[in-house]
Structures are given as C-alpha cells and as structure tokens.
Design brief:
Number of strands: 15
Largest sheet: 7 strands, mixed
Low-confidence stretches: none
CATH architecture of the largest domain: 3-Layer(aba) Sandwich
CATH superfamily of the largest domain: NAD(P)-binding Rossmann-like Domain
CATH topology of the largest domain: Rossmann fold
Order of helices and strands: EHEHEHEHEHEHEHEEEEEEEHHE
Mean pLDDT: 97
InterPro entries: Gfo-Idh-MocA_inositol_DH, Gfo/Idh/MocA-like_OxRdtase_C, Gfo/Idh/MocA-like_OxRdtase_N, MI/DCI_dehydrogenase, NAD(P)-bd_dom_sf
CATH class of the largest domain: Alpha Beta
Function: Involved in the oxidation of myo-inositol (MI) to 2-keto-myo-inositol (2KMI or 2-inosose).
Enzyme class: oxidoreductase
Family: Belongs to the Gfo/Idh/MocA family.
Distance between the termini: 26 Å
Strand order of the largest sheet: 12-11-7-10-9-8-15
Radius of gyration: 20 Å
Bound molecules: (2R,3S,4s,5R,6S)-2,3,4,5,6-pentahydroxycyclohexanone
Number of helices: 9
Structural class: alpha/beta
Protein name: Inositol 2-dehydrogenase
Number of domains: 2
Shape: globular
C-alpha cells in the first residue's frame, strides 16, 4: 500500500497531539481529513497541513473515499456510532479509550468485529508501548520473576480538568492500570473494590481524591492502585510487580540525577502524560500504521490491544463505579470469549 491516508476525528488535547505526530514523526501515513465538533478548530488544523481537509460530519469523514484509516479522539459517548461506521466501511480504527461508555455496547462491538472476520479495532492503551512497561512485560514472560503474584501501582496527576469527578477517576485514570494488570498477568480481572480514604483538602468538591483500587485476577493475584489526581506536583505513574523470585519497578523517573546544589540531590519529573508517554504514543501509532498497511495481506489491521481489551476494561470500570458507591468488592463477569468466534 502507498501512504496510508488517515482521518483524525477530534482535535482536542490528545487528537491534536496525534495530528502533530502523524504530520512530523510517523512514516508511511499522512493526514487526509480532520474533524471536530468545533468545525472551526478542524478547519484551522487542516489549513496548516498540505493535502488535508476538514470534514464537518464525523460519519462523513469515516466514509470519505480519501480515508483509509481512522484515529478516534472524540468524546467517549460518540464512539459507539463512529466505531460501527468504521466497521461498516471496513476502515481500520485506532480508538482512544474508552471503547464505548457502557459494557453492553462494548460487547456488541466485539461481536460485530468478530462477525466481519477481520481485526479492525485497536484501543489506545498506549502504556503497552512504553519501553519500561514493555521491558517489565518481557521480564515476566521470560520467567525472570518466577510466578508474578502482586502488583502495586501509583497513578498521580498534578491536576485534572474542571468537572473531573470521582467516577472519572475510575473510568479515565484507573482504566490504564486495569489494562496494565491484564497485560502483565495475562489474566482477566474478576473483582474490584474502591476505597475512599480521607480526601485531599485541596481537591475540588465532588471529587473523592485520593482513591484506592483493589483488584483480583482470575487466579487470585492481587493488584492495588493508589489514584491521586490533584497532587499539585507532577505526573507520576509507577508499577511494581512482586513475584516468586523477586520484584521489579518501573516509572521511577530516574534519568539525570543532579548533585550540583550543596546539600541536595535530585532530578526532573514529568509534568504531564504528554512528556511521560509521548514516545509510547509515537510507537503505538507507528506500529498501528505499519499493521494497517500490512493488513490486506494478513487480515489483521491492529498491533496491540483490541476490541476485547476495550470491552474487558469497560466491564471492570463499570464494577469499579458500583464499588465506589457501595465501598464493597464487586464481581466482574465477562462474556465467554471462546463462544465469540474471532474475538
Ligand atoms: C487521562 O484521560 C489519561 O488518559 C491520562 O493518561 C491519565 O493519567 C489521566 O488520569 C486521565 O485523566
């Protein structure tokens, strides 16, 4: 295939970053179409890119004959319709999380894609493409930690946008560790409990922060996550896996360690997910573009987490939100994957 012609739908925070990376760093792809619910914003982006047009209706952008593949960075509630349109037109799609905002529609998408017999949907769990996460995964897979048993995670943000509420801590933030736990352990999550400790006095009203998540996997492995999204300090995302033969930690931000101030030492910490995961996003999009270009020969248009992973994460989030309200552990029940041929 010649250069992949990509449509980016949604040019807000993350969509604009994808536009920039496709324009500047990704090989084998170019931007053909952009879309946003604020039409002028899309027009402004398109005006700066040779060969790129703004299309005001997202479904028209997907159907556009000049578009080979789609990046969805639109608000979650619009994903279901847009993903169905991608399947209908046979267009490979990289969809930022969430797959959809409820479990039933997420499962429906899994089934629809399976019926097509082609893997067209990739979900944007970018941490899987980060060098440190990939190294930890490889270490576990090689048996270097023996049987992995426990995972401790911290997910701290300096601040969140206005209107970010307690439920969003589960659906927008914890969702990453849910995917990481499934990725590292290679098992589904079977229960989740959310705990709300004494709140940060600086957190806005309506936001329970910090929160602690306790997850259990199919074979009884334990995962705990501290979520603290109003630290005022930095973007800190750490994961420690403890196994039969030792432990390993990633996300310590240990790059340059400075000892140039008398009586002190230190280094730099990332201010936001853009700096922490920028390279992971580049790798994710490059590998997706490469997979899509190979797709006609392989029938596989993804290289990374797919629709099932998006569905499984949505199911755990749904149970997490229920637990947030009751404080009790909530069981996660997934559909029988083996009964959905091709899922
Ligand atoms: C945001 O949506 C993200 O995906 C970030 O990676 C995460 O750290 C943040 O908490 C979310 O709000």
């Amino acid at each position: 295939m010649t250069e992949l012609r990509v449509a980016v739908l949604g040019v807000g925070l993350i969509g604009a970053q994808h536009v920039d990376r496709i324009e500047r760093r990704i090989k084998g792809a170019r931007l053909a179409v952009v879309n946003d619910y604020v039409t002028e914003k899309a027009e402004q982006v398109a005006a700066g890119i040779v060969g790129c047009r703004a299309v005001s209706d997202p479904l028209d952008a997907i159907a556009d004959p000049d578009v080979d593949a789609v990046v969805l960075a639109t608000p979650g509630p619009t994903h279901e319709k847009q993903l169905l349109a991608c399947l209908e037109h046979g267009k490979p799609v990289l969809c930022e999380k969430p797959l959809t905002t409820d479990v039933a529609t997420a499962l429906e998408l899994v089934k629809r894609e399976a019926e097509l017999g082609r893997k067209l949907i990739q979900v944007g769990f970018m941490r899987r493409f980060d060098d440190e996460y990939a190294a930890l995964r490889a270490m576990i897979a090689a048996g270097e930690l023996g049987e992995p048993l426990v995972m401790h995670c911290a997910h701290r943000n300096p601040a969140v946008p206005q209107g970010f509420n307690s439920e969003m801590v589960v659906r927008d933030s914890l969702v990453h560790e849910i995917d990481v736990a499934r990725f590292m352990f290679g098992e589904e999550i079977t229960s989740i409990q959310m705990v709300k400790p004494a709140p940060n006095p600086a957190a806005p009203g309506g936001l329970a922060d910090p929160q602690i998540a306790i997850l259990r996997t199919g074979t009884g492995k334990h995962v705990d996550v501290e979520l603290f999204v109003t630290t005022g300090i930095a973007y800190e995302v750490r994961t420690e896996v403890v196994g039969e033969k030792g432990s390993a930690t990633i996300g310590l931000d240990v790059n340059l360690v400075r000892k140039s101030v008398p009586g002190a030492w230190g280094g730099a910490i990332t201010p936001s997910f853009k700096e922490r995961f920028g390279r992971a996003f580049d790798t994710e999009i490059q590998r997706w573009v490469d997979a899509v270009r190979r797709g006609p020969g392989t029938g596989v248009y993804v290289d990374g987490p797919g629709a099932w992973d998006g569905y499984a994460a949505a199911a755990v989030c749904e149970a997490g939100v229920e637990s947030l309200n009751t404080g009790l552990p909530v069981a996660v029940t997934l559909a029988d994957r083996d009964s959905i041929k091709g899922a």
